[in-house]
Records
---
Amino acid sequence: MKALEEAIVEWGEGIGTDIVKVDRFLNHRIDTALVTEMGQEIAGHFRDDAPSVILTVEASGIALAVTAAQALGMLPVVFAKKHAASTLRGEMYAETIRSFTRDITYDMRCASYCIMPHDRVLIVDDFLADGEATRGMLSLVRQAGASCVGVAVAIEKAFQKGGRTLRDKGIRVLSLAAIREIRDGKILFQEG
Amino acid sequence: MKALEEAIVEWGEGIGTDIVKVDRFLNHRIDTALVTEMGQEIAGHFRDDAPSVILTVEASGIALAVTAAQALGMLPVVFAKKHAASTLRGEMYAETIRSFTRDITYDMRCASYCIMPHDRVLIVDDFLADGEATRGMLSLVRQAGASCVGVAVAIEKAFQKGGRTLRDKGIRVLSLAAIREIRDGKILFQEG
């Protein structure tokens, strides 16, 4: 998606060979117009798959999940939790996740009422890198007995294994921008 | 706001005398249509104050902040962070917060580029209870040298001190639903 690639070039920051900072427009300060347009783009790709619910994980995926949900006719959004809250109780689905950016392990959780066996789940997130968060969400979908219609992310780090692993499993993956390489602070995109 | 009060009655859960669970439509599973309408309601109340940016805190405030930002003409949204990320660096504003629901202390942080001295900040959050999170966000606004046009929350626990403290300071507070009391699992709203 051209507008997103332009924002990454203008506002993003490549650090080392594998970190992309998009705090200025995506996951700390949000460019609301851009994220709304990104949600519409996701909706255009998945409308025919008739998703019934959007699943993301707190916190950076929520804005994009909501705008995609709006564009898909006001679908419900579920955001899986990373942190235990005193109000989160009852039957849960859970999966242990290793976070690449934070270098920690956490339990991704979702109450069982959030996803029903008949649900057609569209997974939405800000980043797809090694695919850990997506693996966790796919596990929640599986535990619910539901099906996944696909995975839509803002930014895929195509030099990491997440996207390839999902596609090899036959899962449809849409990345609005796919980064091929970060070199000398320069962010290079995949063609096509 | 009638639609929100109805959702609280139908889907919410009162626990003890002070906990309101709204996980089923607001802060775990999101009713996108309702949250979009809530954003429009907030916009209607604050449009004349010409806010230039919306400030919230991860994670449960993000959906409402985004829909309010859309309704206010695609304002940028800043969500303050509760957790350190390897990609969050540079000059920061920070405030130590005591969380009521989690019974923990955390540092609320925001990069200095997020809020400029000329900004007119509208603070948006899901809950206003003892006012700790709001106090933190007001501190970030102050550290940035910006001004706050008001505070909009989905649900005010009017039996806790947060709302009163803010109003006593002359800060405009909009709560879309104000809960007077939780008694025997029943959630009772304030009149007007």
---
Amino acid sequence: MASFPLAPGAAIGIIGGGQLGRMLSLAAAELGFDTVILEPERGCPAGRVAARTIAAPYDDPEALAKLAKACAVVSYEFENVPAAAVDRLAALGCEVAPGARALAVAQDRLEEKTFLNAHGAPTVAFAAASTADEAVQAVAEVGAPALMKTRREGYDGKGQRWVEHAADAAAAFQALGGVPVIVEAACPFVRELSVIAARGRDGATAVYPLAENHHEGGILRRSIAPAGVAKATADQAERIAARVLGGLDYVGVVGIELFELADGALLVNEFAPRVHNTGHWTQDGCEVSQFEQHIRAIAGWPLGPTHAIVRVEMLNLLGEEVHGWARLAAEPESRVHLYGKREAKAGRKMGHVNRMRPL
Amino acid sequence: MASFPLAPGAAIGIIGGGQLGRMLSLAAAELGFDTVILEPERGCPAGRVAARTIAAPYDDPEALAKLAKACAVVSYEFENVPAAAVDRLAALGCEVAPGARALAVAQDRLEEKTFLNAHGAPTVAFAAASTADEAVQAVAEVGAPALMKTRREGYDGKGQRWVEHAADAAAAFQALGGVPVIVEAACPFVRELSVIAARGRDGATAVYPLAENHHEGGILRRSIAPAGVAKATADQAERIAARVLGGLDYVGVVGIELFELADGALLVNEFAPRVHNTGHWTQDGCEVSQFEQHIRAIAGWPLGPTHAIVRVEMLNLLGEEVHGWARLAAEPESRVHLYGKREAKAGRKMGHVNRMRPL
């Protein structure tokens, strides 16, 4: 078993080899750690900056055994890590952070909202459905229009659809594949915000200033942070973060998506048990980025400061937009972060740029 | 031949796999580049964050051919790269930056000082010697006490010794191995400063604020930047940097070590054609670090901003000092940078810490 705090030189495992794994690896290296990436895709973004890549499916038992043997702690860059993989690592005596409970809650939208409400983190009204009839009932219960989402999987707007009238609920349920769903009341939000927070192995927490987020077609386009918010709103975000982190006995960084209502009150949309796209601004806006913070937390190091040193407008570079790198590189106020992905598919997150603004 | 500016996804070669290569690799990755390290030592610090390592001697012809084939441009992390290696890369049509002339001048202390004076960058008085008799003559010429240094090799205070009296010159010459030396007049400096500067492929230059440096036993212990200096001193440093960069038709980052005299005037001690230990403060003190700046320059990207956003005290962690990581990690004002070296030998640079101070 690993002994915490982890000494530099230890290896940290990361399941998933995309941009989040890449930026985690870079942050880990600054602290003297090696990283080992588990990812089926060869030449993945994270693997090209890691000490080692194990090229295998996420649930491959032999690969997981190698990962457990090589690493003092294992983390992940996406919340849909197969539960069996985490169980396997645990059975091998390998520390996984954030833990299995955080992952299980985050993987099921019904469990997630139930957990949030139980811990005093308010959400929209919701109801679950496993059949078409239940789906009709659920929409009637929360009121149309409502948002129907598969309980599991789905990201960037995938696996969900709006139901304008209760009568359309059965068709929507079938269109989503006839799998268990959650139906959420429409939220009259005025703004989408998010809060990135961390909890260390000692239970200490650290919360970054709120980000204001703008999506297009279900994909994050732009974040501005620190967002201009009333003190009461910022305080509520801190309370929500503390409840989520404490309620899950969490270790690591969490990204919590929020709806701001007209009166400044917040509802939780969802949380991701990992570093988060709306926290990329911290790379240039804070002394310790969300990536270093996550590594600090899972390694049992003390958390770093989270105050903003500058205001940042973070812009995702999607698909072909990455070909604008030369123009962006010439902007003195812009810091360019590119992920080394080979193919600029439509909507694919290829990089981001942090534009500095006065605080 | 490579076409500049290099597009993200290109590979950048780095000769040398130590901490400077490591930090260059991390910076290159943020801009979407892969790095390929040439280094005989397996498991070297840079190799653990690079896309590929070629484990071979620096002058191995086959290894150099592989490097040239894989990379759009090759740079290096130390100035004692064998000239034959650079010639071989050039013969293969591989772009090397900084170029062969910068390297040749920097490798020979006599050529270096001759170049500096010829380009209006003042140094202490000096004289060359290739025999014991010439050494005596040289010390007589510049006046004792004088500092005798081998013309080639030597770093961190190695390969040099003080000559208190002209009569000791022959013995000092023999003690240094009987190789060609340069004898330098003692410099009545009040402070050691350095300036980190860069020149792009378009000839544009960018100069960071001066750092004040403190050595112990010939090894850098501490830098404070921006150093408090008179405007005339800062202006002279900028002029010196411009002359060095322009005179060598330089591409990349250079580190120039300076002596400040009582009246604020500067003499050049030496320059290193690479990122420099006294520039590590830029990682946390500037928007674009010296490492990113070097990658930008050699990739033909526009240079980034060089102004300080905070004052930094950079402290090298030598040998066993690295074992103080837990205490340093707990200091909110300290950013820890560790190199992943396995063995904490005495005097070995294991990492550094940047402590934030108000500007």
---
Amino acid sequence: MSNKFGKALSLTTYGESHGNAVGAIVDGCPSGLKLTKKYIQNELDRRRPGQSKLYSRRKEPDEVEILSGIFRDQTIGTPISMLVRNKDAESEDYEEGILRPGHADLSYELKYGLRDYRGGGRSSGRETVGRVCGGAIAKKLLSITNTKIIGHVKSIGDIVSNPSLEYIKKYAEKNPVKCGDPEIAEEMKEKIIELKKEGDSIGGIVEVRILNPPIGIGEPVFDKLESELARAIMSIGGIKGFEIGKGFESSKMRGSVLNDPYRFERNKLKILKNDAGGVLGGISTGENIVLKAAVKPTPSIKKSQKSVDIRNMEEIELEIEGRHDPCICPRVVPVVESMSAIVIADLSLRAGKIPKDKVN
Amino acid sequence: MSNKFGKALSLTTYGESHGNAVGAIVDGCPSGLKLTKKYIQNELDRRRPGQSKLYSRRKEPDEVEILSGIFRDQTIGTPISMLVRNKDAESEDYEEGILRPGHADLSYELKYGLRDYRGGGRSSGRETVGRVCGGAIAKKLLSITNTKIIGHVKSIGDIVSNPSLEYIKKYAEKNPVKCGDPEIAEEMKEKIIELKKEGDSIGGIVEVRILNPPIGIGEPVFDKLESELARAIMSIGGIKGFEIGKGFESSKMRGSVLNDPYRFERNKLKILKNDAGGVLGGISTGENIVLKAAVKPTPSIKKSQKSVDIRNMEEIELEIEGRHDPCICPRVVPVVESMSAIVIADLSLRAGKIPKDKVN
Amino acid sequence: MSNKFGKALSLTTYGESHGNAVGAIVDGCPSGLKLTKKYIQNELDRRRPGQSKLYSRRKEPDEVEILSGIFRDQTIGTPISMLVRNKDAESEDYEEGILRPGHADLSYELKYGLRDYRGGGRSSGRETVGRVCGGAIAKKLLSITNTKIIGHVKSIGDIVSNPSLEYIKKYAEKNPVKCGDPEIAEEMKEKIIELKKEGDSIGGIVEVRILNPPIGIGEPVFDKLESELARAIMSIGGIKGFEIGKGFESSKMRGSVLNDPYRFERNKLKILKNDAGGVLGGISTGENIVLKAAVKPTPSIKKSQKSVDIRNMEEIELEIEGRHDPCICPRVVPVVESMSAIVIADLSLRAGKIPKDKVN
Amino acid sequence: MSNKFGKALSLTTYGESHGNAVGAIVDGCPSGLKLTKKYIQNELDRRRPGQSKLYSRRKEPDEVEILSGIFRDQTIGTPISMLVRNKDAESEDYEEGILRPGHADLSYELKYGLRDYRGGGRSSGRETVGRVCGGAIAKKLLSITNTKIIGHVKSIGDIVSNPSLEYIKKYAEKNPVKCGDPEIAEEMKEKIIELKKEGDSIGGIVEVRILNPPIGIGEPVFDKLESELARAIMSIGGIKGFEIGKGFESSKMRGSVLNDPYRFERNKLKILKNDAGGVLGGISTGENIVLKAAVKPTPSIKKSQKSVDIRNMEEIELEIEGRHDPCICPRVVPVVESMSAIVIADLSLRAGKIPKDKVN
């Protein structure tokens, strides 16, 4: 197990889906940052289940308790420990020997022998609570550099949206699918309801834009900006692909088209377009950073699947009951944002781009 | 800068394109591994320029010298230092103030102020020499677990190949584009020659398959197998996207289709297909690991581009002369293989899957 | 701040003296280790204040709650999160602007600007609760290799004991000063009571012996066994010196005397004495590891000291009231043991000396 | 093996005593630092053998070659690779099966099975060449904060010197024993010559003072300043003890005596004495940092010792010929300085105390 992420700013998470609690420790946050429980709670609320009929019915209040690192609503430079208790765990929905296809049941069984099978244990989406706690702090820290991190659901299955940045800002948080285009959001919603009825699930693409990032962050050759972002985001459960800028489309393009040209504008260098997605050679140029994550369909489906029970050594036809999201994309948005925020904050601190005297 | 990769097995690289040398240090390799200079040289030769008219004409012998860590053709557990001198550097092709679009010239200038502008310095593709040196050792180490790592060029621009594993093994090393389908290889070759004539460049997709990987490697939740692979491969210059298994295609799929079902076969668990790409919840299942990397077109093109000279503060139309590959995909293949090998070897050591007593 | 220790087995701690809680997360513990709350509680109880009139009167039950990582009294390979709430904090004893000589008040003020001044905040001895939680797990893990870690108070001021290993095992836990020689223990006790009456404090030396350590642990050249031990133990508050084997005495010795000679005994190599303290060139030889830590006198004393109040910018004569130990050595014993255990367990895992199949 | 030290500024070393070369890579040095080969060579020359009849007769020119990271005599932010070839290696002095008491021969044999037995291989004092290369860069970096690092031999056997800082500055580099008191230096010299005649060796104490260190460096609770220094210095071959400030003497002292009191002087806080050795709670206060390292006597002695030949499985009486120093203390001085410099520079960078814009 390896449950720490980041070098200058680090996030450590713990907790199983049906254990006592999930939580996070953020270490390396400069002292003097104004930080309230309410700020963190707001971010957590964006991830919480039970908000809409599109989501899991698990009813977790997900109330965060701050155990250390904050004094009089300010960070003091010591580790910030945050705790969220598990409340509404229905363990009877899970059976010990059954391997759910597409889940980590098999691989945890192979690696650890022994596992907390209830709700997937550590491999549950509930693990991301800690990531969002950490992301909240990173976002607050990045407010010092006026850096904003905005995510939205770009596509669900083959329903694709192409909203402008203005639209994303305006609409993505206003609909339960977190799509930046309100009309396409409706389409997505219907699709998800349809799949729910069928007892099936669907994947999608989450896009995150990092606006006004610090210039010159990213540490070649192994901790490049895109490398750290890829690592962070591919570590989220259910993510199968990552791209930055034009991503896989680049593979079909010519250099003469993809290269972003330079000009001067009032003696200041200007990059004429941003197909690179804000990064050259692993270092931010100051342009907005644009990344996408491919989210697979929820593996928990009601539809019958071929599987096995390894305790009883028998083959089964599995129909997963329980309270699962037919599409996890909307709830993945704050998680991808959070991991992006942690990477940007960590690399910014490493590059000296968040001067300690600016914090308070 | 952050030039070390890996925890149990680590690779540190150094060197600029037109400096004295490039090189690598591998630390953490168990003692007793049979390792000759010739073995490493073979891998380096696969990456070397000047092998075909498709590639750069830079003529580097790229001869490796082993400085430490090997005694009587065996590793002794101490760091293995490998050195490759730069010989055929034509520095006069580069001008100090010119920012080449799509290159790291701008971002290095912004981050470091001062830079070795000759050939891109540290941001040059020449940096990958060290990666291939490290990859050679990782591959040798993985021979203990009978793990093989095989790469090929899946597509160039919109020319896509779909070779079987047998075809890849048989043909990918036999043609200069490293394509597993000999007919499509011809097409690709022509495309590249055409672009070269036009003074332009093209991207492509490199696929790597890791055959017979150790079971149970990958360290959730932050050093998951796909997360470490993504990080490693996205750290290679010119890579804009990464996917594992069905990758971005997953985003369009239903759970009932994507999930890989289980059955028993002679009392042994069998996974009926491998859309997951060999990994569940960040841990290897033992199925082949399949990953893809999106390679952008070489930014160095002869075609005229809008750019600037920041020393003279003037706008220019840039036509890059010099000895550049119109498509770097074939030469990227051993690099993606190398980084994959290092990740697999590192995670295998961390999981105790390369028992020290098996090494010698 | 840097609150994580260890590579294969890691300990992260958090918490301030008068905040909500102190706690620890242990990551990297193999799955299948039998571990109960009671086992951890026993170790914590050895460190707890209020046990004797020699110690602080602060009455902390120090009850540990396990939040994750344990299922059915066994580890499952996921991070083990442990929480201890602060109960008996008398914050009114502390004043914000006063810098207590010998404490970290000044340096925290200089580094962080803002600090939780109550009871020293993060720099309090209370921080070691998390270390002891982690040490308990490391000790349990080392039971697999039959490695035992035994500490005792070797000296208090100039009262020095020289107990045999048998005496240490028999007597050190039986007296409040944790001295291995019961007669000298009485002397030490009287000394401490005398100093308490004077409102003064005294230092001492804690010795830890690691019995039957795994052979071949320690990673030259920078993570040598003695180097990791020194780092771990010097990170404990109030420790000013570290030595291994003959330590500083070695500096006065001749090679012909200090070198430990070799012989064969029934064809097995035998080391004729152990002045090296169980380590050669940074690697364990299998002999018992013997280390000492110099503990400074508690800086909190009732006797008047010259100091300053930086809020009011005035010079003061400070008499520290409150519930302080006149000699912290006895309570430091389990902490030095814990840090030693973590180092040995971590290095043992890194060297493959705790095979996963032996754990359960 | 673990051959990297440091987080923000890191040193990686490699090389065996009788292999092709020893060397070092420094990563994380900010760009723009003026750095010439000559500067590094000067530091190396202070460590070189063959300078006096007190030292080994091995005649190594120890000429450093810079392979990367420097352009036009300035650092460019990329890894600085430095190479020193081994020239005067007399391998015939060593026999494969013989375990030299006090050396790492036994422990390397136990850990790695296979080893380069010639001259101790990686465990040789020659390994410190890389440390001194790294230390040179760290020292240069610290010149930006006006921090100076000065070492001297405080004692040889029971001959102890107590020079003032002025004396150390004036005399320590002027005599072959590097003692700050010229009269005692003579005594030490005679002692060493006497031991050489007897075929024996002797230990000593090296003291290093870090003058005008940056304020507020050190990262509690695990990367405290004294913890990192201890780790760094205990990783040097032959060091058996470490102390800071009053060190082991503290264990005999009372709080009322050891605590350093505070006063104001022209409204500026003043620490009235420096028994703490420049550090409180793991963080520098700005006072000079004072540390000591206990150096054991060279294990290579001509005097007959009981040992074994594990190839021939026979007991032997060993008389070590070869070119060994009867006392390594003088040559250890630049090594302890170097490791101290790396720690201070690393922690200073981590604390933002070497602003990048001050570098060039």
